[in-house]
Write a structure and sequence with these properties.
Length: 196
């Protein structure tokens, strides 16, 4: 499966390459959040691929503007192209008016998803907006990752975790890293092409 993962930044280079058909064929577009519905509609249309997504912390109001479709992965497991995708939306709750959760709230969401995965055959790809705590996050409150993601990764061992939220231009941010669970972690900020 060839995946175009996007998050956080509407990228003119991606728009140009999709318009020019220079990136090849995709089987799925995955959004890790903080991108407007019009941009996602354009990307999925130009990629000629279905869209799966989670909301980012700034994606308040998606429900009203997502008439175009797409699979909301938050808290569910969806089989797409023979792989099992699941997702958890939002970031650490640092102010009113965002899609945010406390560490405890996300622990409960992750535990429910982990139990569902354990009972139904696991997860191949976990899609989140925020990173796992200590793996691609930052020390400031708004960009801390979730502790619960580390437990979920160690429990269900997905092959891949896609996230956004921490922009690559915030400093020395690694695009890809390995988690002790064996899961490959990829920061999809901007865009990234992946083969599974």
């Amino acid at each position: 499966m060839r995946i175009l993962a996007v998050s956080d930044i509407e990228d003119d280079v991606l728009v140009s390459q999709l318009s020019g058909k220079t990136l090849g064929r995709f089987d799925l577009v995955v959004s890790c959040g903080d991108l407007g519905p019009a941009y996602l509609d354009f990307v999925a249309t130009m990629a000629n691929a279905p869209l799966a997504y989670v909301r980012g912390n700034h994606d308040v109001g998606y429900e009203d503007s997502f008439a175009m479709g797409g699979i909301n992965l938050d808290g569910v497991i969806e089989k797409i192209g023979g792989l099992r995708f699941a997702g958890l939306e939002g970031s650490l709750d640092y102010r009113e008016g965002i899609v945010g959760y406390s560490q405890g709230e996300m622990s409960r969401k992750a535990a429910k998803l982990g139990l569902r995965a354990a009972l139904t055959g696991g997860i191949d790809v976990l899609v989140t907006h925020a990173p796992a705590r200590g793996y691609g996050d930052l020390p400031d409150g708004p960009h801390q990752g979730f502790d619960a993601f580390n437990g979920l990764l160690s429990w269900v061992h997905p092959r891949l975790m896609l996230h956004g939220h921490v922009h690559l231009d915030y400093g020395m941010i690694e695009r890809e890293r390995a988690h002790p669970s064996g899961t490959k972690l990829v920061n999809a900020c901007g865009w990234k092409v992946l083969e599974l």
